[in-house]
Amino acid sequence: MELQYLGTAAAEGWPALFCDCRICRHARETGGKELRTRTQSLVDGKILIDFPPDTYAHALGYSLQLGKIKHLLVTHSHMDHFFPVELIHRHEHFGHHAEGMLHVYGNEAVEEAFYGAVLIDRFRVHPLDEAVKFVRLKPFGDFMADGYHIIPVPADHDKREQCFIYIIEKDGKCILYGHDTGMALSREAWDCIFSHKYGLVSLDATMGKKQTDGYHMGLPDGIAFVKLLEAQGCLQEDTVKVINHFSHNGEMTHQQLEEFAETHGMKAAFDGMKVAF
């Protein structure tokens, strides 16, 4: 399997849109891996995870033909993870030769945002019935998509909606995609996570070396999360461990994140990074 990180930033981007803090100044001056778009990933070129405002830029930057994608997993309804108005462009009037149906999977809040965007008056002449289909998910309601076994696991994030992290399996290989979440997962969520063995674990690192009471994780949380997985026998000798979803409020440059990750046997994601396992 292969996971490509198309974007690796938190909601405000990096450098943040209106910010002139030390980290954002450094990013603008340095460029390269210090520049981050909002978080989005792609599994094997087939399963898209999240749909931020930067999706169009990702398609351009990585020569993606998104009209071939048939499955979109959405973690939650926050704008940096789901910007549904762009989905209207999969209608044949805009997206010529898009292949088959795009299935959009998410919670009730994602569903409300989806229909609120694509059913506005000016789009009624371009109905998406033959192009995009929404599928509402339930916690632990596993399903198959193009040969992938996918499990939505309740996250520790926004209490106003049922946010998800995802377990994605195919041909004996397994990904734990853990964004956005804190550590205060339910017992049922931990049990589900502990019931798998992973080739790749991708964990939230929004807070940098800081920690907060849920919602997101910092680097100390990521270390603790990995130790829990190790104690439960969920990791293999060659499991790839990645930290991702970074904010300038974490007050660490990419170089500092890379150094920290290397010290702890991890990788620090950057925009465009591919991990095969």
Q: Would you tell me the overall average pLDDT?
A: 96
Distance between the termini: 6 Å
Low-confidence stretches: none
Radius of gyration: 18 Å
Q: If you had to describe this structure to a student in words, what would you say it looks like?
A:
Strand 2 and strand 3 form a beta hairpin. The strands form two sheets. The chain has a seven-stranded mixed β-sheet. Strands 7-8-9-10-11-12-13 form a seven-stranded mixed β-sheet. It has a single domain, classed as Ribonuclease Z/Hydroxyacylglutathione hydrolase-like (Metallo-beta-lactamase, Chain A). Helices cover 21% and strands 26% of the residues. The protein is an alpha/beta fold. It is built from six helices and 14 strands.
Quick structural summary:
By secondary structure, the protein is of the alpha/beta class.
Note the topology.
Blueprint: E1 2-7, H1 22-30, E2 40-43, E3 47-49, H2 55-61, E4 71-73, E5 102-106, H3 108-118, E6 132-136, E7 143-145, E8 148-154, E9 164-170, E10 173-178, H4 187-194, E11 198-204, H5 219-231, E12 235-244, H6 254-263, E13 267-268, E14 274-276
Parallel strand pairs: 3-4, 4-5, 5-6, 10-11, 11-12, 12-13
Antiparallel strand pairs: 1-2, 1-14, 2-3, 7-8, 8-9, 9-10
